[in-house]
Design a protein that fits this description.
The complex is a heterodimer of chains A (about 110) and B (about 110).
Chain A: E1 4-5, E2 10-14, E3 19-25, E4 32-38, E5 45-51, E6 56-59, E7 62-67, E8 72-77, E9 86-93, E10 103-104, E11 108-113
Parallel strand pairs in A: 2-11
Antiparallel strand pairs in A: 1-3, 3-8, 4-5, 4-9, 6-7, 7-8, 9-10, 9-11
Chain B: E1 4-7, E2 10-13, E3 19-25, E4 31-38, E5 42-51, E6 54-57, E7 64-66, E8 76-78, E9 87-94, E10 104-105, E11 109-113
Parallel strand pairs in B: 2-11
Antiparallel strand pairs in B: 1-3, 3-8, 4-5, 4-9, 5-6, 7-8, 9-10, 9-11
Classes of the chains: A mainly beta (about 110), B mainly beta (about 110).
Chain lengths: ~110, ~110
């Protein structure tokens, strides 16, 4: 059973607007939540993370929100730029600081329209 | 600084053949892990290691073997390749206290088993 779910396989957003990518999880023992960005033929690159004890983390154009009661997190990108077009993966790590690896969602393909 | 280096980038195997996917990191990271990415499936954890001499199974370990004799290297062995192992394989590494910053990924090995 999937512990991390990204229910939107793709999302199309106009350049300059806000992109909102969503992620749900089922395991309440997850300690950190992370977002990775992936271009074709490359490995995933770390974007931003949030601890389970926080509800918001911001880094430049990227903000991640965590709603623990709903087991839901979202990534906001403002403003969206053409270079943001990529697949975005939501991931989670356990209380071991990621020692036992990451659990990934299936990804959302973000397309930024000019 | 090379980061995480995976070799080869591409490989075609015949069913039943064995091979080793190489992974090396030069960041003195304790944690290392292997993932496979299949279309529509996201990344799934195969094996992971929390330090030299210590390895454990992830979500999809069957048909794969790993060892960690040094901090730098974490090879993944396919014992008897099957078409179901056709996938893109990613190796990743992280510091032990880097739950918030996540893993650094290699650029991947695309494996086709015919």
């Amino acid at each position: 059973d999937q512990q991390v779910k990204q229910n939107s396989p793709s999302l199309s957003v106009q350049e300059g607007r806000i992109s909102i990518l969503n992620c749900d999880y089922t395991n309440s023992m997850f300690d950190y939540f992370l977002w990775y960005k992936k271009y074709p033929a490359e490995g995933p690159t770390f974007l931003i993370s949030i601890s389970s004890i926080k509800d918001k983390n911001e880094d430049g154009r990227f903000t991640v929100f965590l709603n623990k009661s709903a087991k839901h997190l979202s990534l906001h990108i403002v403003p969206s730029q053409p270079g943001d077009s990529a697949v975005y993966f939501c991931a989670a790590s356990g209380t071991g600081g990621g020692a036992d690896g990451l659990t990934f969602g299936k990804g959302t393909h973000l397309i930024i329209q000019p | 600084n090379a980061g995480v280096t995976q070799t080869p980038k591409f490989q075609v195997l015949k069913t039943g053949q064995s091979m080793t996917l190489q992974c090396a990191q030069d960041m003195n990271h304790e944690y290392m892990s292997w993932y496979r990415q299949d279309p529509g499936m996201g990344l799934r954890l195969i094996h992971y290691s929390v330090g030299a001499g210590i390895t454990d199974q992830g979500e999809v370990p069957n048909g794969y073997n790993v060892s960690r004799s040094t901090t730098e290297d974490f090879p993944l062995r396919l014992l008897s390749a099957a078409p179901s192992q056709t996938s893109v394989y990613f190796c990743a590494s992280s510091y032990s206290t880097q739950g918030a910053s996540g893993y650094t990924f290699g650029s991947g090995t695309r494996l086709t088993v015919v």
